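Re: that chain you flagged

S.,

Sorry for the slow reply, it's been a week of failed gels. I finally had a moment to sit down with the sequence you sent. For the record, here it is as I used it:
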Amino acid sequence: MYHCEAENIFGQNKKSFKVLVYQPAEITIFSSNQTLLAGNTIELDCEAVGNPIPVLSIIHRGEVLASTADLEAPAMEIDRQYRVKNNFYKSLQLYSFFAVRTSPFEIRFSLRQPKATLLDKGKYLCMAQNAIGFDERLARLDIMVAPYVQMDKLKTVEQTVRLLEGLPMFLFCPIEGTPKPTIGWYRNGNRLKSTVSTLFLPAVQLRDAGTYVCFGENAVGKTELQFEVDVLVPPSIINSVLYGESYLSADQPDQEEISLLAGDNVTLDCSSLGHPVPAVHWMMVDYLDERQNVLLPTRDPFVELYNISNTVTYSCFVNNTAGSAQKLFHLVVQAAPRWKSGPEYEYEQRVSLHHSLDLTCETNGSPEASVSWLKDGQQLSKHDEGFFFGVNGQTLRLLAAKLTDAGTYQCEASNALGQIGREFHVTIDVPVSWSPWGAWSACSATCGTGTQFRSRICLLVNGSPAHGERFNCVGENVEIKPCELLPCPVNGGWGKWSSWSNCTLACVTEYSGVRSVRHRSRACDSPAPALGGKMCIGEEYEEEPCHVKYCPVDGGWTRWSNWTVCSGSCGVGHSIRLRSCSNPVPRHGGRPCDGAEHEVKTCKLQECRVDGGWSEWTEWTPCTKPCGEEVTTRRRFCNNPAPKAGGSRCVGENFERARCLTKKCRNDALVRTGNTKKLYTPYLSYESNNPTGRARSNEIDSAEYEDPDSGHQDQDVTVVRNYQYAEAPPMEYVDVSAPDRMSITVKLLNSVRLTDDTAGFSLNFGNPTIAVPAPSTCAEGYVYNALHGGCSDVDECADTRVCAEVGQYCINTVGSFECDCIPGYRPLTSQTERYDGSIVQDMQCVDINECREKTHECSHFCTNVPGSYECYCPDRYLLGKDGKTCTIKRKRNEPVRVMPRCREGYQWEDGQCQDVDECALQADECGEAFACINTRGGYLCVPTDCPPEYELDSEGEMCTLNCTHGPSLCAEGATVGQTVSHTIITLDRFLAKQPLAVVSIPAVQHSAGMEFDTRFAFRGRRYGQIFALETMRKTSGAVRVYANYNLQRGKLYKLNLVAKSLRRRRLEFVHLFVIHVYWIE
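Prediction finished late last night. Pasting the structure tokens below so you have them in one place:
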């Protein structure tokens, strides 16, 4: 409102103006984009300003949910909430709307939804408009829904699905959510690869049964849907399955004939497979009157019958909800032949000439009797003219009786249990005239061209048959004419073989079982089958192996051998382990192995015994006497090294004595004794006229051993001195030309512990040139030689303990020695660290395997021995004088025969090329980790080594793994132990009714005295159509392995069998059996 005022002297005036400002609608606030969980509250607020007050509308999916147009905005009170009615079609969504006027020109419009659903998802538009203009804002609302099961899409509420084995299975998982959930499947707790809503299995097997869980998961949550799948397997009788009849049913029962003697007992086995477990029904069948059939009360698959007296048939019928199967057991009681009941036997038989006559010898008995016929004592055969033999020869028909057919006929029926016979006397009646021709017989052929015949008989005039040879009618009694029916079917015939194709492989891997083959084919067109004729019999496709070279085989290391025993029994030694490049041996141009053939490591069993060693000599003690003879000494100590670990003490003296070179004293010098109170005794001296001699003296200085202080004694040492000298009376000296000797006896009687000290006395009176010199110190490897007065070399090889290891010999050198290997051994050097830290080289000798390295000179076969090798020969060969060459045995003057050359893997023997058994001769190159299987012309290597985590047992029969140290050690779930064993089965001939092998759990588990429930099964069904298992009756710890006639020659089969042993429903042992089966071609 604007006011204008005017004023002068005359007065004043006043005028007012009202000004209205119009503003276009403008949205100032609108909720931003939101993401809510289903069930949460939706809150949208939209504020706008304008003059006049704008009308606000909220639009969702093109429809106006609510608008403030129905409100009188100018009349609205500020800050008061007004409820706005929503449109009718949205009323089910529980929307509520409120409008508030916040200022004279501002209004807020609010939307509330207490429970958000997917219908609320989308874009929301807030539109503000007035007479001046309009504005709009957009917000997006996303609703997230946790995964849920769409129950309305489930085909059935029942979550258990039952299917017949072999039918397809569809499991539908209708789980939805926002965002779209990720779908996954579990079977029996194991995750499956399928990630779609529908799980499809084209043909369910029994192993597919179990609990299936479908889950859907998104950022909001997770839900699951569970199905129980039960696979129904129609019954199949085990024995029939073993022999190839796995698809028998009750409409086509299996049949088995069992021959018995009267009074025998028999057990009928009707064990069956199926799921659910089939019910067993036994019935004794009467084929003549089914009302006489007897249903047995037992439901056990085994029926024991005793004292069988008559031939009878038993039916075994097994059924479950999936189907049924039947097997018939025909128990045939063997009996001697006996005549069938029928027309009374007549000895006399008559027949008109040119008529037929039947002679019958029908019998009962089992096995069925064979019947032979004789006429007048002569054997009749099927090729005799005029006779026809019925089924099994029990009926003999005379086709057109001749006069010569008259006579005595005998029939003899016999089987293994007895024999019976009959005689017939046949008389021929002769007619006079022919009777009218009979009707034509049926055509002899069922298709194409055949013959028909008709016959007549010779009659007497009165119409009766004529008798006697003179009454023979003229002409033939039988007339034959051709007949033709529809064309016969044409059976197919093979055309010529096509040319051989190229070989499939240019080279083959040795011992792999893979062969290079070529093939050819032929067509059934010579002629082609027509008019319902049979197809050709035989194969239209043929393969044969190609003789191609072996592919290069690179060498491979065997497993490391065990470490050898430590080379030193004490101190630091070394241990060696070896491996050889024989797994496989490089051949056919393959590369050799890369790496070392041996490894050496240091080892230490205990501290070594160390013998004591002398230290260096000390300096000589000084000479102190002014005259006379004096002794100087020096010492050494046994500490270089000191004796240790029971080592011996040092050998030799620990001190040395020598005379000092001083001037001679007066002759009245005396020798002291150990007792200072005793008077000195004079010494003896003389002079010689020998120009080489000089004065000699028996003077001995005992200062080295005297006690400087006679009153001082050590507490633990007692020295008793008692020196005795031999004295001589005055004597006259007679000079001689050669130096003379005088001897004196000195006795030292002491009771003192001298520890390492030694005492030595060398008293020599005479020429100093023959005095014993002081010993000298020699270097290691030398010893002092008193004869030569110097050090001489020590022959260490004289000690048998030097170079005493296998394959070594000793070589003496100056001051030392060397060890080398004898021929046939190879040196292996290693470094060993001594106790003092020094490094020494050590050497061991390892046997050379000349046979494996092919360095031998044998003409045929080689076997390795320690340090060498030996040659041996095949049968019928002799080893030559050189010990290497094999020659064939020949008698004297027998000409040399050049034997044909056999291909590789064969040798000439008994006039033909026969296979060489490389495995028995140990001529294979399979290595330690493989087993050898002999084949025609070669051999196969199959792995039999233990897995890395297993250990070979003490008997070397199976691999064992201890599972008691932790639940994660054994992947199969065993809680006590797992074993792996390998079995090799080679077949020269094969019978399907005989088991290939009996597989049993280890004997130690049998002897433990515990009750185990052991279940055997194949791991995988690769050869399920060939091999089968049969549980032994008296134990669950063993099964028999069978094969049917689908087993092929020359093919290596690897079977993986698992046995799980449970005790008190706890899986304790898992035994894995790897069985290799090979049927030699």
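What I noticed first: The mean pLDDT is 79.

Talk soon,
D.
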